[in-house]
Amino acid sequence: MGRLRNPILVLLCMALAACSSGPVRRVSEPAASIQQLTVRADGNWSVELRINNFSSIPMRFDAIALHMNLGSAQAGTLQGSAGISVGPESADVVTLTHAPTSAARIAMADALSANRSIAYELKGTLDATPEQGSPRTYPIERNSSLSPVPGLPGVMR
């Protein structure tokens, strides 16, 4: 019985020690993607950028600088300040106004008139600060596509 008591006591102490350490604070790279792009009457775009926080703690997102390609056309750089806090393992949306290049406007108009999808690429950086941490710049790369929304002219998702 004495031999059995020591290993059980050791396992019990290890289990108690594991419980006392608290939650793990994991900071992971965020992601960004276009949730919706709306062509406005003035020719500019309203871009709803979805920011994903994969960290186990809240993150504050600030500066956004993402170079955008639409199809084979360079569309310029999405720039702005998110100015939002996103909870752990959550996402939120920031709306940015974008003045696209003429080549990107033509590519978007062509996709909308033909009622077809168009590929997009985002490359750049996103500044974020973990809760009780120091600011950091994260690289962002995203390749995906946008499709016309039925019944909403000029809107791609």
Topology:
Elements: H1 2-19, E1 31-39, E2 45-53, E3 59-70, E4 73-86, E5 90-98, H2 102-113, E6 118-130, E7 136-146, E8 155-156
Antiparallel strand pairs: 1-2, 1-8, 2-5, 3-4, 3-6, 6-7
Provide structural commentary:
By secondary structure, the chain is of the alpha+beta class. The protein has one domain (24-144): Immunoglobulin-like (Sandwich), CATH 2.60.40. It contains two helices and eight strands; from the N terminus they run H-E-E-E-E-E-H-E-E-E. The protein has helices at 2-19, 102-113, and strands at residues 31-39, 45-53, 59-70, 73-86, 90-98, 118-130, 136-146, 155-156. Strands 5-2-1-8 form a four-stranded antiparallel beta sheet, with no helix packed on it. A four-stranded antiparallel beta sheet has the order 4-3-6-7. It is elongated. The protein starts with a helix and ends with a strand. 22% of the residues are buried. It comes from Luteimonas cucumeris. This is Late embryogenesis abundant protein. Residues 125-157 are annotated as: Disordered.
